Amino acid sequence: MNSKLENLWEEVRELSLGTTPQIDRLHTPPTPLQFLRHYLSQNKPFILSASAATTLQWPATTLWTSTSYLLNTLSSSTVSLHLTPTGQADSLTPHPSNPDSLCFASAHVQSTSFSDAIDAIKASRKNDSSKGFVAYAQQQNDCFREEYGALARDCDSHIPWATEAIGGLPEAVNLWIGNDLSETSFHKDHYENLYAVVTGEKHFLLLPPTDVHRMYIREYPAAQYTYSEESEEFELKLENPERYVPWCSVNPYPLPKDKEKEISKFPFYYNGPKPFEVTLKAGEILYLPSMWFHHVRQTPDNRGLTIAVNYWYDMQFDIKYAYFNFLQSLSFCKPRLNDGDSFINENLSNGDKNHKEE
């Protein structure tokens, strides 16, 4: 049966992405009809290159390179700042009471002035950290139109060719400001995502929905970080009442000392087709189709900041979604994994948390 899975992975790549599978790079924006026919309906990603003169004709592409402009424009704004010990939130970390097992940890979130948020992000960079945390300014609740409304005139309110093809405006528009330590673990979203980098770079690993069994989705107990400014320390507590979150178990960048162990635990990931690697530069847009798995790292600009805006459009819960749920529900692939000293069965359960760090 594993050979049939492998055939599926290869056929999806060949049929949707070509005989030498790669992510299309467009040098002119698609028309609504081109987007609908060639990408949206086929659940196929693409990059709209910065070389296209009409890619991002936003004031933001020049204005937001000035920290002074951002500070002046948002001088009276309060924003949500996410704090973690390592820069990884909505990710797996050792269980607070049993280090041999894992839990799903969410960031400590605090409201702060935009000025203090920028200071915290800059102070928590790699090799230059004076803090015991990594800071990331974002909130996945339409924060660009809410917390950062003073900047709204600097960007398009929607992506016109996507809006026309999809038949509606984006449900949410979000702003992300982070540094070189901010990292997003593998996950999928039930949205059609148009992701635009304004400054710095974003580095994506992408896998199609049919690779779901390579993600080793298991249910993990949910936990929350809390940060004390007095002690400058984090505490990780399990949620009460208890809650479990289905999450991808694979870390695509294990430490060298851990790599052999990771390969043995997750052979479908490491021995299958390589993820698509995409670097999104300033001025470029990635169309990330619904339910594609993605892992994200970033490289900041010369100020130490990466700034991006993404547009979440509702996906169609159609036959494609039914096929994916059926595939994910198949239980023929349940390898036993060594999690610490105990062996547990792999859980390939349905579902995923919709909104993630990026």
Automatic annotation (TrEMBL):
Gene3D superfamilies: Jelly Rolls. GO terms for molecular function: 2-oxoglutarate-dependent dioxygenase activity; endopeptidase activity; histone H3K27me2/H3K27me3 demethylase activity. Residues 135-328 form the JmjC domain. GO terms for biological process: negative regulation of gene expression, epigenetic; primary root development; regulation of abscisic acid-activated signaling pathway; regulation of brassinosteroid mediated signaling pathway; regulation of photoperiodism, flowering; regulation of seedling development; response to abscisic acid; response to temperature stimulus. InterPro entries: Cupin_8 (IPR041667), JmjC_dom (IPR003347), RmlC-like_jellyroll (IPR014710). One of its GO terms (cellular component) is endoplasmic reticulum. Belongs to the JARID1 histone demethylase family. This is JmjC domain-containing protein.
